[in-house]
Amino acid sequence: MSFNKLSVSALALLAVSATAAAARDEIRIVGSSTVFPYTQAVAEQFANNTGAPSPIVESTGTGGGMKIFCGGIGEQHPDVTGASRAMKASEYELCQKNGVTEISEALIGFDGLSLAISRTNDFAWDLTLGEIYLALGAQVPVDGEWADNPYTTWDQINPDLPAVEILAYGPPPTSGTRDAFVELAMHAGCEELDFVKNGGFDGDWVKENCSRMRTDGPFVEAGENDNLIVQRLDADSNAMGIFGYSFLYENLDNLKGVMIDGVDPSIETIADKSYPVSRPLYFYVKTAHRGVIPNLNEFIEEYMSEDALEAGGYLSERGLVALSDDRRAALQDAVLNGKSMDAPK
Q: How far apart are CA 345 and CA 337, in angstroms?
């Protein structure tokens, strides 16, 4: 498979940037904390196979990575960004405005948004999406009114749950994990509430009123480093963490998943969609940097290799749920040949 040739304008832009600084040898990658361990694994494999410098991979969050990635063309700008959601129309427009006009989009596989807790907690946790919303939403139904969340312990939501304080560590607003959790867990959980179902509220109402996480203590923004959440769960057996399945998968010795609607997060339940909170994972590549930034083409080839992406490949060993054979083949063809993505709607 071959890569698209660079346009004259792209070469010109890179030539201008090169006058300001010496050519860099390392590939630069930013983006999602969830995609980070997968990209880091590919970077290590690439460096081992080729002897080339290992790409520099930074965990900036999906939103932060998009902003940096779309900053422009040239050596001072990153080549790739990882994302735990698809690129937004506003981000695509920012890219276009700054000359990042040709971008390859790669949906590399699927991930579950896991709620996790320490294995030293011996309760058999099984929550509905509605209970998750009532625990973490900024506003909830109170005596027939939509009001600030009064719940402080789990048993106040459901008497079958333990009488322990609600405490969940999760990602900040710049994170794609936060975006996905709000859409897949908070909105869906809000829609399960009798107040919403019986009130005739539509999706626009839910999006406007059920998107905010609590700021009064039970939900704590823990930054973009998911390893810090893992450390906090180790220190507090009643605290829960919200992160991508890969981080739970890598820490199963110390952590266990919280079931949602009776289903444990696992590679199998994420793949068959029985686990209700799953999402696709992406990375994006600047076409203009291909063939100019040393080793970028070869790195993308490694990322698109069967060794990395197939079921049983080294990324699935880290928790990535692989695409079907047909979807993976279509992905490889599009990305390796530099097919440009369409504008998001």
A: 24
